[in-house]
């Protein structure tokens, strides 16, 4: 059995959710096979995922060390995938210094790597750091994606600047053509609702080109968050007339406010 055969079996375990078996097979592979340089680089990212799922920080660090020893992280073809996997892995263990070190050691980090860092920082409540990440991406000419914009806009909702950061990110979504994305619309409406900027939220809502229920629900939630209960109720009736389903928890909240 060669390294590729081992890798396929390990991948099969991971896809079946057998993360502990995948980790054990990886260790067995290293014991029984010579010439580690022949290991397929892509399997390292899969093993890191397994290590995160079984909460084995030690093994994950060993995988990181092996990647460095074999030069996988420096290889341009595989560096983004492996570095992104490492950053996500360390993020799962809240080892943000190690995650940031992986990023800073790269000479040409791309969107995969930056998106992993943004996700880590948001999950850990480092909201101002998320905005700094976003600015740094712009300075390095990194093209943002929907996931990055989504996390950055959510972070903006938690920064006490009256929504100024969010407005700047909104301008960027327009410039790069992301404002029409359903998820981005929801995040923008949520962010403006958090700061009571109902008019801005309404502009985003009215610019929609389809009737996705999540955008409608986000607008109702925005009204509720800003204390515009009558407008929320009116929009719910409009949703009912057009056959758009409201979220159950949102209906409960509206009913509660209406009965006060």
UniProtKB/TrEMBL annotation:
PPR repeats lie at residues 212-246. Pfam families: PPR (PF01535). One of its GO terms (biological process) is RNA modification. Coiled coil: none annotated. Transmembrane segments: none annotated. GO terms for molecular function: RNA binding. Keywords: Repeat. The keyword Repeat applies. It comes from the Eukaryota. NCBIfam families: PPR (TIGR00756). PANTHER family: PENTACOTRIPEPTIDE-REPEAT REGION OF PRORP DOMAIN-CONTAINING PROTEIN, PENTATRICOPEPTIDE REPEAT-CONTAINING PROTEIN. This is Pentatricopeptide repeat-containing protein. It comes from Noccaea caerulescens (Alpine penny-cress).
């Amino acid at each position: 059995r060669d390294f590729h055969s081992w890798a396929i079996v390990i991948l099969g375990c991971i896809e079946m959710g057998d993360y502990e078996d995948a980790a054990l097979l990886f260790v067995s592979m290293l014991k029984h096979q010579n010439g580690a340089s022949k290991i397929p680089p892509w399997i390292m990212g899969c093993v890191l995922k397994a290590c995160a799922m079984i909460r084995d920080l030690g093994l994950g660090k060993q995988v990181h060390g092996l990647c460095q020893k074999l030069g996988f992280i420096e290889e341009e073809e595989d560096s983004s995938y492996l570095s992104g996997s490492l950053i996500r892995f360390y993020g799962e263990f809240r080892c943000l210094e190690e995650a940031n070190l992986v990023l800073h050691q790269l000479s040409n980090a791309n969107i995969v790597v930056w998106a992993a860092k943004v996700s880590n920082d948001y999950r850990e409540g480092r909201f101002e750091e998320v905005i700094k990440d976003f600015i740094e991406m712009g300075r390095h000419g990194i093209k943002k994606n929907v996931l990055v914009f989504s996390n950055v806009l959510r972070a903006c909702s938690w920064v006490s600047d009256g929504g100024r950061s969010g407005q700047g990110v909104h301008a960027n979504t327009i410039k790069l053509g992301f404002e029409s994305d359903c998820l981005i619309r929801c995040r923008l409406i949520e962010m403006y609702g958090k700061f009571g900027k109902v008019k801005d939220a309404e502009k985003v809502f009215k610019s929609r080109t389809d009737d996705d229920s999540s955008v409608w629900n986000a607008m109702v939630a925005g009204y509720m968050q800003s204390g515009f209960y009558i407008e929320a109720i009116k929009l719910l009736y409009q949703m009912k007339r057009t056959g758009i389903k409201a979220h159950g928890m949102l209906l409960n909240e509206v009913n509660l406010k209406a009965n006060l």
